[in-house]
Amino acid sequence: MALDKKRGFTVVAALLLLLSATAGLAQVDFGNAEYVPWVWHNSRVTILSNGTITPSNTNIQRQDNIYTLKGDLYVGIAILKNDTVFEGNGFRIFGPTYGTGILLQNVTNVTVQNVHLQYFKNGIYLDHANDSTIKENKFTNCGIVVSQNSTNNLIVENTVAREILVEYCQNNVVTKNKVSSITTFWAGNISILDNTVSDSKCSDKPLNGGNYTEGIYIDNSENCVISGNVVERKNVGIDIWQSLNLTLKENTLRNNQVGFKLWGADLQHNLHLIDSSNTVNGKPAYFLVNTTGYRFPDNAGWVAAVNSRNLTVQNWVSTPNWDGVLFVESQDIQIANCNLTANVNAIRLQNVSNCVVNQNIMQGNYYAGLYFEGTTDSVITENRVINNYCFFDVWHNSTGNTFLQNDFVGNWTGPLGKESSNQWDNGEQGNYWGTFTGVDRDHNSISDTAYFINSASGEADRYPLMAPINQMASQQQTQNGDLLLSMPEEYLNYTVTYIDGAAWVKIDGEYPMHLTSLPTDSLPMLYPTPPETVNMHIKLDGVEQSWSNYSEIDPSALHYTDIGSWEMVYCTIKPSAKDFLLEIHYEHPVEAINGSSIFLYDLNISPYLSASSAISTAHFNVQLPPNETDLYVYTTGFEGRWSPINYTSTDSQLGRTVTFDIVSEYGKPLLGDTVFILGDNPIPELTTWAFVALLAAATTTILVLGVKSKRQPMQGSLRDSKN
After folding, report:
1. pTM for the complete prediction?
2. Residue range 674-690: average pLDDT?
């Protein structure tokens, strides 16, 4: 099965392509594909194998084996005769935007020259054509296709507005053309020599979105020579995909968005001869194979190595390539003090071990700062990973790596394979994450809560840093930062008592919070309170705050619960530090509804959940009075369905103590309210009040207004793949 030509960026597509490529290599030789797609040529004029022209009144003059165009034509031509010359004489052949301008089919030794072809799907198409020459033609809105096992053909000195495509064939030469792009696809022994490959201008597009332009694209091909070409003003200069044994010499890549791209599923697809006579923006490309003990020069235009060891890249400023630094099947590598920017991936390591990545700047790359595939036992420390599309893409059994004291600032964390297992701290310190807003109540510059990098694999930075290590990263974080508020944990202490035979609840809530930056103004706060609430106190870092009944100001400002509507209280707070503690105390009677004694806690904390603070845990501690042993706990959700909560209980002289945690996660359905039921009626008879929550939007337990949350970033993965 042949791979599709153009690129996409999903994990599924990548896996399918890898499987397809592997299967194809096992079954099909390059250039001798068992399946070649059928093409509709729509030829209306034919030069038959016996030399006659049909229809006979076509404006083509024959003299022996030379056929000369005597005027413009508006139909496609099929040449079926061997040993002929088709002389265009500078005239034009116009097409209807589909079909083929000139078809060479099952012929040998045919020359097509001096024709101007316009507006066909294929300008000239070679189908089982051998030993033929296509030269000095001009193509507008169409190109040249050499396909269907055509061999030993020469494509020379043409001006092609679109693509020269050489596919499913062998032993062809493409030389001295002016062309927008050249592609080989399932081909072998193709020579691409001394061409000028360019567009009038280079579009600066995000390269993680696909559909980019390539100058020379070698796809599933082998034993090709690419030499002496000038490639400029393309999104990707030279793109090598899943190919074997290529030779690249004296190619000049300049003013492209990125220069080289190389991808192969295994070692053999990366073993090419690409010497330093190739240049990217005037700097030599250094591509090493089977090398031991080498330090890359500071003037490198590309840094890459395959099947090598003991390599050093130091104090290098990258020239943009798909991968700024690329190592495949290599080990014992040091990458230090480099500035890697405007690549797709700053560093890509494929099946690499024992690599030290230290004190580099990876900024403004189109996809990942760190792209690891099958990378093990490496140490990544003190790097500034700033404003790339994502911080990293770590997958395909990348295990045993240590990430420590890096500044990850801006954008999205990135994919982390669930099969991967890595260390993100040393037991005392971890990394700084611009996408995480932790809480530091003991002011030791380390978050009191872990940063969960990937819930599927369970990987977490247990000791994330509260501020960037590097001043550059700190300045960038300030420039990027919206004012964000997080509450990774909250502590709810309930005490149930009886007063004159009626059950009452006392609530003491502690809410450690974190702001990414201090606001210039006070923050308004709304808090829902149950009916008949008394003895309410709000404290900010131990200092009592004044409050008022907001529902008296705005009667529509109510919090709707499954057991009725609650009023809202209002106050303003002005924290003096980014980490602060809110404490709220109040008391209210337990409601009797349909024979059940019920109280409730609102658990909708969506304003505190974001890509920056993905998890919040509510710790509940409920103290029941002596002789009160039956307690049922539910979460309500927002669809009228109650789900029971399991808890742990202990008995003492003071009564029974019930404890449990409820975790809320960003991007997942929230659990709504927590309902407590005393007595022996575990599920009360629900009436219409049980569905009131569907009719109105709930507020949060503590809602601080005016604090923005970051946009949810576009999530995806840039596994090198094709659409």
Report:
1. 0.74
2. 65
